[in-house]
Amino acid sequence: MICITGDTHGGLERFKGKQLRGLGKGDVLIVLGDFGFVWDGGREEQARLDWLAKRPYTILFLDGTHENFDLLDALPVEERFGGRVQPLRENIFHVCRGSILELEGLSFLCFGGGESPDKDDRDPGVNWWPREMPSDEEYAFCDANAAAHGYRVQYVLTHDAPSRFLDFTILPAGANNRLHAYFDKLVGQMNYDQWLFGCYHRDTRLSPKVRCLFEDVVPVGERKKWWKHL
Question: Which residues cross the membrane (predicted)?
Answer without folding.
Answer: none
